[in-house]
Q: What sequence folds into this?
């Protein structure tokens, strides 16, 4: 695929310092690149900032959505690698939130030469509990979540977004996230949710060879802190920072703390 087509497909935008190191931000499920608007601008003086939308989200070209390609997170990892190739960049700081943290892991494992650092925010390689693994959900919880999404995206969004945010004292953040969920194509949202919440990428963590920072909120109903600790234990040489924040979306609820932890890691 031609570089221009790749960049259009994923609605890639580039800003910041043209001579700076490249920093790529990848959004989580139900979101778009606009979710980064409280974090990404803080790096534009020093970095070449790259934002994009996963196919089916934001301003991406939903017409090219292919259920076969995106039937696993590997399809999204392929997109990431194609974006980096289209931009002809390496030594990239890849910043992935939620499911995109694992997408970044998969992409870096396939071609570590493109990556200089991984920043994983709220990563979860598996969302359901499994023996001693402390996933946030039981299998029946995931089934209920997917059934609810099938029935009514609007209702699902309004009910689920506040749980993701985990900031009942700041309801405007839950409303913002719900609005983002509501802009999804229902069929794509359902498929991406199934792929996200039924994935199991625990075995991929040990293969990470790129310096890795893990940022995890102290309280997170979607990916408990025990999951962040598990990811840290499995990725060789990784560093874990527990944020003084609540909820699964600290890039909205605590953007300054997220940015400060990133700068400390990258200095």
A:
């Amino acid at each position: 695929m031609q570089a221009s087509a790749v960049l259009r497909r994923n609605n890639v935008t580039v800003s910041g310092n043209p001579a700076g190191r490249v920093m790529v931000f990848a959004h989580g499920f139900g979101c778009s690149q606009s979710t980064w608007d409280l974090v990404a601008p803080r790096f534009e003086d020093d970095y070449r900032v790259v934002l994009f939308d996963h196919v089916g989200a934001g301003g991406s070209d939903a017409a090219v959505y292919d259920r076969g390609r995106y039937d696993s997170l590997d399809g999204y990892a392929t997109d990431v690698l194609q974006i980096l190739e289209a931009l002809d960049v390496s030594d990239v700081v890849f910043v992935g939130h939620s499911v995109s943290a694992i997408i970044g892991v998969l992409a870096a494992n396939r071609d570590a030469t493109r990556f200089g650092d991984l920043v994983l925010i709220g990563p979860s390689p598996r969302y359901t509990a499994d023996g001693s693994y402390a996933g946030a959900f039981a299998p029946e919880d995931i089934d209920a979540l997917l059934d609810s999404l099938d029935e009514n995206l609007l209702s699902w969004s309004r009910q689920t977004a506040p749980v993701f945010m985990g900031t009942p004292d700041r309801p405007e953040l839950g409303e913002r996230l719900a609005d983002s969920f509501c802009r999804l194509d229902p069929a794509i949202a359902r498929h991406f949710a199934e792929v996200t919440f039924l994935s199991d990428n625990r075995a991929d963590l040990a293969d990470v060879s790129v310096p890795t920072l893990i940022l995890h909120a102290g309280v997170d109903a979607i990916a408990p802190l025990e999951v962040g600790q598990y990811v840290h234990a499995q990725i060789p040489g990784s560093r874990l920072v527990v944020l003084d924040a609540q909820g699964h979306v600290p890039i909205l609820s605590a953007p300054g703390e997220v940015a400060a932890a990133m700068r400390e890691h990258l200095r």
